[in-house]
Amino acid sequence: MFLPLTIAVAVAALALAAWCGYAAVKDEPTKDWHFAGMAAVTVLALAQVVVGLVQLGRGEKADEGTAVFVSYLLAAGFAVPATGLLSLSERSRWGSATVAVGGFVLAVLQVRLHDIWAGSGG
Question: Are 117 and 1 in contact (CB under 8 A)?
Fold first, then answer.
């Protein structure tokens, strides 16, 4: 994996989680600018999906297995869009809280993707 991109996705996801978590604490639903943030984080996550698939296509291998790596990679690509869609159906503070959790999950997935790719020695 491309470590700078992994770090960028994780930091952006945590920033989104904090931002939407703050909105939830203030009893606010997700707003248009939250969706712009979700879009930016999603673009980064999708860039990582492309990079990961290209690396696999070039013959590189994940230390913990290709199937596990691709599963986590796809989950990372869908984490924020899925919670964003859920927040549309819940137009209360809980919609913001849902996106905050999605951002946190994406950050955790980044750590796990790095571990799967690099193995215990990476």
Answer: yes
Instruction: Kindly state the DSSP code that residue 92 receives in the 8-state scheme.
Output: S
pTM of the predicted protein model:
0.92
What amino acid is encoded at 38 in this protein?
A: M
By C-alpha distance, which of 74, 96, 81 is closest to 38? Answer: 81
Q: Which positions ≥6 away from 77 have C-beta within 8 Å? A: 42, 45, 46, 48, 49
Round to whole Å and give the CA distance between 86 and 48.
Answer: 23
Average pLDDT over residues 61-86: 94
Nearest to residue 106, comparing CAs of 26, 48, 35, 28?
48
